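<discrete_fold_record>
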Amino acid sequence: MLVSITTTHQPATDLGYLLHKHPDRAQRFEVSTGTAHVFYPEASAQRCTATLLLDVDPIGLVRKAGNTLGQYVNDRPYAASSLLAVAIGKVFGTALRGRCDARPELAETPIPLEIHLPCCPSALAERLFTPLGWTVAVTSQQLDPSFADWGESPYADLRLTGTLRLSDALAQLYVLLPVLDDGKHYWVVADEIDKLLRVGANWLATHPDRELITTRYLAHQGRYAAEALERLTELDDRPAEDAEHAEPPARERSLAQQRRATIVDELRAIGAHRVVDMGCGEGKLLHELVAEPTFTEIVGVEVAAGQLRSAARQVERFADRQRERVSLHQGSVSYADPRIADFDAIVLSEVVEHIDLPRLPALAATVFGAAAPRHVLVTTPNSEYNVRWESLPAGHLRHPDHRFEWTRAELGSWADDICATHGYDVRHVPIGPVDPEVGSPTQLAVFTRRAA
């Protein structure tokens, strides 16, 4: 089986930098199911194509312990499936993560791409790829031209054309190839949830068929799919019913993504280098922070052991030089911790609303008093915006674990008390679309300690 990636971005041979595979060399990689080969059928300044060919060992595949295949004769060596997705993850892993030291600006730039899969399950291809910005061309094939009554093959020649970041294109292939095939060659365990949410972070939450994608990717294991969908709803920051039924414009960033981007922008603007993510959860913000070399020391603090384990798995996937800049601690926002004292900035992203109101003075004493960073960034929902979500009944909170949700005036009052007590100044930044009547869905308070 094979997949080809073509670009006409000029110079097109920059594709070699993005994929970390030189166009003048054919390369070979051993993978768990056989051997992967990377080569360039064409490489000019005008047009460049990289091809990944996976040579599957069908006998070894069936004999491998835990494999879900039961027959030596099968279609796995030919049809695009989870085997090809795993090979993409191993061979193009650096490109999949969006890293390109030689051309960092290009890695963040959408470029014209054509993806060719000559043998691919096609029934859902247009439905799954079109909302992501692709133009989808499916050419059906007969099972055998000599026997017309056998009908068409379930596999087709699939071509996707669009203008996307290469990392996004690879992430979509990585997730959707097993979804199209609706089968995996390995047992699905709970770790697959983290993998799905990590690789699909930039697009899955807003895909109109995210429930179908999640269910198929997780091999129809209901408890895993339910957990993944719940976490996707939290990522998208909409009430569950809106998140399930709304069909936002393709490639629109979720509110959670906008929040993380705003936090990183603010940290960069205030010149922070040593940063604490207080209440880091599963490590989504850590992933954004570690991508910025300006943040030289990053600490994640989380009270929930399960969330901390998920964050640790996230950190394990970082490149070696990135991992060296990150440490994780179990800790609470209510108790002073000398390990987070005197940092440039502490981030409390969607944390305060999970704290009982009587405990907020302890949080303030811990963060603004004992730790005393130069800056503190606090994001929290703006309850005034809740009326814009029709499915959220009046007076209800966005999430069952929220103890409260503040209006803009209520956050302002709390922030003013912090400033008066602990010697900080504050400014307020909206996150998400700003409604002229009710403001933005998320509010950010940026505290800066006054000079002595």
